[in-house]
UniProtKB/TrEMBL annotation, chain A:
<dbReference type="InterPro" id="IPR050250">
    <property type="entry name" value="Macrolide_Exporter_MacB"/>
</dbReference>
<feature type="domain" description="MacB-like periplasmic core">
    <location>
        <begin position="95"/>
        <end position="305"/>
    </location>
</feature>
<feature type="transmembrane region" description="Helical">
    <location>
        <begin position="780"/>
        <end position="800"/>
    </location>
</feature>
<keyword id="KW-1133">Transmembrane helix</keyword>
<feature type="transmembrane region" description="Helical">
    <location>
        <begin position="486"/>
        <end position="507"/>
    </location>
</feature>
<feature type="transmembrane region" description="Helical">
    <location>
        <begin position="757"/>
        <end position="774"/>
    </location>
</feature>
<feature type="domain" description="ABC3 transporter permease C-terminal">
    <location>
        <begin position="351"/>
        <end position="454"/>
    </location>
</feature>
<feature type="transmembrane region" description="Helical">
    <location>
        <begin position="349"/>
        <end position="368"/>
    </location>
</feature>
<feature type="transmembrane region" description="Helical">
    <location>
        <begin position="92"/>
        <end position="116"/>
    </location>
</feature>
Automatic annotation (TrEMBL), chain B:
<protein>
    <submittedName>
        <fullName>PadR family transcriptional regulator</fullName>
    </submittedName>
</protein>
<dbReference type="InterPro" id="IPR036390">
    <property type="entry name" value="WH_DNA-bd_sf"/>
</dbReference>
<dbReference type="InterPro" id="IPR005149">
    <property type="entry name" value="Tscrpt_reg_PadR_N"/>
</dbReference>
<feature type="domain" description="Transcription regulator PadR N-terminal">
    <location>
        <begin position="19"/>
        <end position="88"/>
    </location>
</feature>
<dbReference type="InterPro" id="IPR036388">
    <property type="entry name" value="WH-like_DNA-bd_sf"/>
</dbReference>
<dbReference type="Pfam" id="PF03551">
    <property type="entry name" value="PadR"/>
</dbReference>
Length: 848, 112
């Protein structure tokens, strides 16, 4: 006879849990007694009455909190103890976990630092949300290299514009001299509003006032320190290029390294202004505006749209704005709309860092679930003794937390070790700022996220196990999560294969960029600045150098033949007035094609007499549709003149840009560089000759030279960065994946020891067992190849699209990547498989 | 010293626990009181009182002695603590003083 169920339920509901046992026990005992004494009906009735009697405050009152520990410290201590023991028991797995996690974390920390730094570029200026870069777009082509008068016109005609400033796109690497100290520093000629737009912190003087004057110079802290030490710099004089003296008007803080505008000194724009800079058809300036408080970008742009036609008849372009803080990351424009830019690299690398971290977490999950059959007994016992599911989850989470905290510590150490090597690679000064709460916050967040991700699967899977089944041994034969584990391995290898394909294709493209014939020869080519006395004695210097047999040829140019950005408007008889004849242009001296090894298809090179004649490239001839270009009449920068030579097309800029029509004019006044072609193998000798000659002719200046090759490399700085990073990441991802695979292989080999023993006894060969053990893993790698290849193809195709000149993606690249992955996987697994296959079956079977 | 306060029913329960010595728990205490006093006491009342006495420090308890008819549930056995004994002695002492102070004729009227 049992007491009424419903009454019991009611009791459960009302009675305090800590009293329930005795109360219910007493009630049941009493019920049995009454049942014997007075019969079932009355016993039930009494039971009900007694239960209802318990519905009162005392019984429902819970035990007071002070007896209950909110955090069960002793249990947590036990979790850590068990975690430590299970680590100790399997050092190899522990090592794999920690190595993988710390590498993954170090990698994502580094990327995090890099991304953070990328986002800091051009941020932090006062009124930053009102500062904009001006571009001109005709709907198809967008440029931030603008005509000179635009800045003034914007300020005058657009009421939304508060301040506007411009400066030349080229930087001026000039000799600064104060007393007996001198040095070359890069500076800008900027218009009067410069310091109203860019409000750098001021150390001495008033830069806003100083820049108004044509006789003042504003310098940065570094320059002030170098020239005047710790004494007051304002009021002292600095001589520029051994010519004019300027009074130091103000000293400002050094321009932050992550600023897109870099300079050491600034002088009023009028000091460098030339007649052509006041015209609307020569583009050579960057223009920044500061909008008035309350003005919107859209409002200002609407007002600007009609500005150009007022100054330039037939102009179709209109100015558009981009917030200064966005320029660096979103600098690419297609059809007049921003289409990303560097942000894509930032996003890609963030994603890769995340994935690598995930791969490391996957290792942890894999190894934890693989060992789940070993841990299952522990879980079973814990459950029998009364552990709830939540506390088991807590246990596995704290195990994961322990490993993650340890790995994070290692990762921070690794990052500190690696930063000195990483910084030059990425051309930044990254550092972990341990005083910043943000750094600690992100580190904690990283640990939290990885702990949860890594710990979640084992915690959830192991905690639901049925103790009765586990302890009977039902689980040891069917390890849980085998399917899940396979999925994770496939994921790891997909990422690795993706990165291998990326490494291959980016590497090939970079190789193509470096080795493709550009149409000009930049080997053994030096450039030396035209400065000081070298300017008036340009021709003498050239003649002097050419007498040496270490030097092949010397020419002069306005800009380096690496990124030809200037454009000009070309006119010729028979030109359709509607065609836009904007051509690239460069101002060069005599022997240009000879020095650069450019192939002349017809005609001849410049001589000193060709003051108003022009050299053009094939594309220009095509554009003008000339049958007999030599001798044809054209009008360009130096007025009406004739074409004297046609050059074979050569690359004017990076491979992202197509080869555009080019017109060269002989314009010695606008010369900035000597280009010197040395005899192959005689570079040292040539440099000595150049230095001697320069010192002789230009005694006031320190001698400096550069290789054009190096400048060319700078064109592809971000591509080189991508190339380097993807190589490191690829190797890292593969390494971490292999660690995981190695762990899994070790585990399966251990688990199948008996099976292998039996097989060997029955006559299996070593080779057969090797195949048996490797087969499963190889299958996964093949699935990964199938999954990763299309994704890799798509991503790489997109990346290559940004190049006008690019390699084709070929099938063998995927085959090679797959083969590599298979080889690496086999190699990783084979170590364990061979060990297992060679084992003496007697040893593995005798323990039975 | 703080005067121990014991309610009438509390005193009865405490005494019963003392009487039952080692075997005092909810059921036995209830049945003992019912038999000795002849009054029907609620199960819940006894439990409340036992709990209250424990909180006052007159009783201590331990869990043991599960039986099948209790569905494997343990009993909470109560024993009287030193403080409990003192309280009982004190109450008895007060009563005796009062009885002793009773005028003899009144005592006779009571039928003694």
């Amino acid at each position: 006879m049992t007491p009424p169920r419903l009454a019991d339920r009611l009791l459960h509901l009302f009675c305090a849990p800590d009293r329930l046992e005795e109360v219910q026990g007493d009630l049941h005992e009493e019920f049995q007694y009454q049942f014997r004494r007075v019969g079932a009906r009355r016993a039930r009735w009494r039971y009900w009455r007694d239960v209802l009697g318990f519905i009162r405050p005392f019984a429902s009152r819970r035990k007071s909190k002070e007896y209950q520990k909110i955090i069960p410290f002793d249990m947590i201590q036990n979790y850590f103890k068990i975690a430590w023991r299970s680590l100790q028991r399997n050092r190899l797995l522990g090592f794999i976990n920690v190595a993988g996690l710390s590498l993954g974390m170090a990698c994502s920390l580094l990327i995090g630092l890099w991304v953070w730094d990328e986002f800091q570029v051009d941020k932090g200026l006062p009124d930053g949300d009102r500062l904009y870069l001006v571009r001109l777009t005709d709907g198809a082509y967008t440029s931030d290299i603008l005509p000179g008068p635009l800045a003034e016109a914007l300020k005058k005609d657009v009421p939304e514009v508060d301040k506007a400033t411009k400066f030349t796109v080229w930087s001026n690497d000039f000799l600064l001299r104060a007393g007996n100290r001198f040095g070359k520093k890069v500076g800008l000629y900027a218009s009067a509003d410069f310091f109203d737009v860019f409000q750098y912190p001021v150390l001495q003087g008033n830069p806003g006032l100083a820049i108004q004057s044509p006789n003042a110079i504003v310098i940065t802290r570094n320059v002030a320190q170098a020239f005047f030490g710790n004494s007051q710099a304002v009021g002292k004089t600095i001589q520029l290029n051994n010519e004019k003296y300027y009074r130091v008007g103000a000293v400002i803080e050094n321009v932050p390294q992550n600023s897109s505008v870099q300079f050491d000194w600034i002088v009023n724009f009028s000091e460098a202004e030339e007649g052509w800079m006041k015209t609307w058809n020569n583009n050579a300036f960057r223009t920044y505006v500061k909008l008035k408080n309350g003005s919107t970008q859209a409002g200002a742009e609407a007002r600007m749209a009609g500005l150009l036609p007022r100054y330039q008849t037939g102009a179709t372009a209109k100015p558009i704005l981009q917030r200064l803080g966005d320029v660096y990351l979103y600098g690419e424009y297609t059809n007049g709309k921003p289409t990303g830019g560097r942000i894509e690299y930032v996003r890609t690398f963030s994603l890769i860092a995340l994935l690598i971290l995930l791969v490391a977490c996957v290792n942890f999950m894999n190894l934890a679930t693989a060992r789940s059959s070993l841990r299952a007994k522990e879980v079973g016992i814990r459950k029998v003794v009364g552990a709830r599911r939540l506390s088991l989850i807590g246990q596995f989470m704290s195990e994961s937390l322990l490993l993650n905290v340890f790995s994070a510590g290692l990762a921070v150490g690794l990052v500190q070790l690696m930063l000195p090597y990483v910084n030059p690679l990425v051309d930044k000064q990254l550092a972990i700022d341990f005083t910043a709460p943000l750094a600690w916050g992100s580190l904690l967040a990283l640990i939290g996220v990885t702990s949860v991700i890594a710990g979640s699967y084992p915690a959830l899977v192991l905690s639901v196990m049925q103790p009765a089944r586990v302890l009977k041994g039902a689980l040891s034969s069917t390890p849980t999560g085998a399917g899940f584990r396979k999925t994770l391995v496939v994921f790891q290898f997909s990422l690795s294969i993706f990165l291998i394909v990326g490494m291959l294709i980016i590497g090939r493209q970079m190789h193509y960029i470096r080795t493709k014939q550009l149409g000009l020869n930049r080997q053994d080519l030096l450039h030396v600045a035209v400065e000081g006395n070298l300017r008036p004695r340009m021709e003498a210097f050239r003649q002097e150098l050419q007498r040496s047999d270490a030097i092949q040829a010397v020419t002069t140019t306005g800009e380096l033949p690496i990124r030809i950005g200037s454009t000009g408007s070309l006119d010729w008889p028979g030109k359709d007035p509607k065609t836009d004849a904007s051509v690239s242009t460069m101002k060069v001296g005599v022997d240009f094609t000879k020095t650069l090894g450019i192939n002349l298809l017809a005609g001849r090179d410049f001589t000193a007499a060709d003051t108003s004649n022009y050299l053009v490239n094939e594309s220009a001839v095509k554009m003008m549709k000339l049958e007999n270009p030599i001798g044809a009449e054209v009008t360009f920068q130096r007025g009406k003149g004739r074409i004297i030579g046609v050059m074979q097309d050569f690359h004017l800029s990076s491979f992202h840009e197509p080869i555009r029509p080019l017109v060269l004019s002989n314009y010695p006044k606008w010369t900035n560089y000597f280009l010197i072609k040395t005899q192959p193998g005689k570079t040292e000798e040539a440099i000595q000759v150049i230095e001697q000659t320069a010192r002789q002719l230009n005694p006031g200046y320190p001698f400096d030279y550069h290789f054009v090759d190096e400048e060319y490399e700078k064109l592809y700085r971000s591509e080189t960065l991508v190339n380097t990073l993807i190589n490191y990441f690829g190797i890292l991802a593969i390494f971490i994946s292999c660690l995981g695979l190695f762990g899994l292989a070790t585990f399966t080999a251990e688990q199948r020891t008996k099976e292998i023993g039996v097989r060997k006894v029955l006559g299996a060969s070593v080779g057969g067992i090797l195949v048996l053990l490797s087969k499963d893993f190889l299958k996964l790698v093949f699935v990964a190849i199938l999954l990763a290849s299309p994704v890799a193809w798509w991503a790489m195709h997109r990346w290559l699209q940004s190049f006008t000149y690019r390699i084709d993606i070929e099938w063998w690249m995927f085959a090679l990547a797959g083969l590599l992955a298979v080889a690496i996987a086999l190699l990783t697994v084979s170590f364990q498989s061979i060990k297992a296959a060679l084992m003496n079956p007697v040893r593995s079977l005798r323990s039975e | 010293m703080k005067r121990a306060f014991l309610g009438e029913f509390e005193e009865v329960v405490l005494l019963t626990v003392a009487v039952l010595d080692e075997s005092a728990y909810g059921v036995t205490v209830t049945q003992e009181i019912e038999q000795k006093t002849g009054r029907a006491v609620g199960f819940s009342t006894v439990h409340t009182t036992l709990q209250r006495l424990e909180e006052k420090g007159y009783l201590s308890s331990r869990m043991s002695g599960a039986t099948a008819e209790r569905g494997g549930r343990r009993k909470r056995f109560f024993t009287v603590t030193t403080a409990g004994r003192k309280a009982l002695v004190e109450v008895k002492h007060i009563r005796e003083q009062l009885w002793g102070a009773l005028p003899p004729q009144t005592l006779q009227l009571m039928g003694n």
